[in-house]
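Notebook, bench 3.
Goal today: get a predicted structure for Sodium/proline symporter from Neptunicella marina so we can plan the truncation constructs. The sequence was checked against the plasmid map this morning, with no discrepancies at the termini. Length recorded as 498 residues. Pasting the sequence as submitted so the record is complete.
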Amino acid sequence: MHYSTYISLAIYFIAMLMIGLFAYRNSTSDISGYILGGRQVSPQVTALSAGASDMSGWMLMGLPGAMFVMGFETLWIALGLLIGALANYLLVAPRLRVFTEVADDALTLPDYFAKRFGLQNGPIRVISATVIIIFFTLYTSAGITSGGKLFESAFGLSYELGLFITVSVVVAYTLLGGFLAVSMTDFVQGCIMFVALVLVPFVAYTQFDNASDLMSSAEQTIKPFSSMFNDVGLLAIISSLAWGLGYFGQPHIIVRFMAIRSVPDIKTARRIGMSWMTVTLIGAVMTGLVGVAYINKFPQTIDDPETIFILFSEILFHPIISGFLLAAILAAIMSTISSQLLVSSSSLTEDVYRAFLNKNVSEGQIVKIGRIGVVVVAIVASLLALDRSSTILDLVSNAWAGFGAAFGPLVLFSLFWKGMTHRGAVAGIVTGAATVLFWIYAPVLADGASLSSVIYEIVPGFIVSSLSIMLVSHFDGSPKEAVQKQFLAAQQQLEQYS
């Protein structure tokens, strides 16, 4: 690979570290600053950091690769994600910003759940923190693995060295600057992803005579556009659209709403975030579509369809631009890793160490513990990532559904129903997660297949979790009077912004 490509990547890494240093000097004097940026994050940074941490490497690799396998059916997933993200901004963002502040300035999702029910160290805090720490550690290991494989395939470096470079840079700026560093680097990474997902499909499209030439070449191996309506069953459409349900329960995304500067800023963040997401999703799908057509028309082979973005960046652009485009993939990977590292560390620090081990720890000391937590989670995730064939990573691919079913209904009910009880909330987490795991792994069908082959596991998980919350809360009786007063106080504060 040309040396100028390495120079582009080096500049990118240096920029990420400089942002981490800037954040270290401006927002890490107390735990609120380290975990939530002091709730002073601008709407612009909120929007792009939420998008970048959400999309990860699958935006530039997984979604384009899906076009090779699923064809235009991939558009249903993209549509489901758009609807889910918009609903998250409308239903969750403003309420969560107010409710977490009213709930004694809750800094993490488990902290909010506990304080929402007037139980500082109740079972819900332990259960939700455990789910976050375990699954995000595994989720992080998958991201680190992606970084290792990218360096291996694109630069010819060893997998282990690529893994080390990826995790070292991410840990450095996350450890230094906490939430502000993660959000600011995500903002820059979101901008890089935006430009890349406009540039790559456009330049690749210019290799064809016109749109008809493109479509005829693509349809040599995938079904025509009309197939997404005519050849797809109802359950398949529901499964694809149901990806949007996952947004309500993703801790690394909704924590952005807790940190935004004010409730009125959420409208600005929504407009920016949804515009960014619409353009990037279209760009990702178009990269896949043009990729299918390009492979069919030109004498070019590709072993892994998910590397079509890498292929385009190497054969269609100058080495300097190639470095920028490869940095876009790294940006997508690293933005998600850093968010998951910080959320895991935050739960380890606030919901385990301070809540149960040392309640009187000083602000300066708890920030140090938070930084240690980042390193610990990163080390464990890296050790898991060393085993490239680890079956643990198969579980991580279903984490979106697991978090969505375990936390999604609980977040929504906590913000909209004052009658939910602590036992109802615990039941929702446990049954939602259990249903997803059963749906994925239980070989109950005639051929030994699991139920996930019929419908995406988040659908039954979300339904079972919701029903559990409603039924258990109903038979459990009314919540404490203080809990209901807190709910009403948050409602009244929200009305000031309507």
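Residues 159-205 form the longest helix (47 residues). DSSP finds 21 helices and no strands in the chain.
Flagging this for group meeting.
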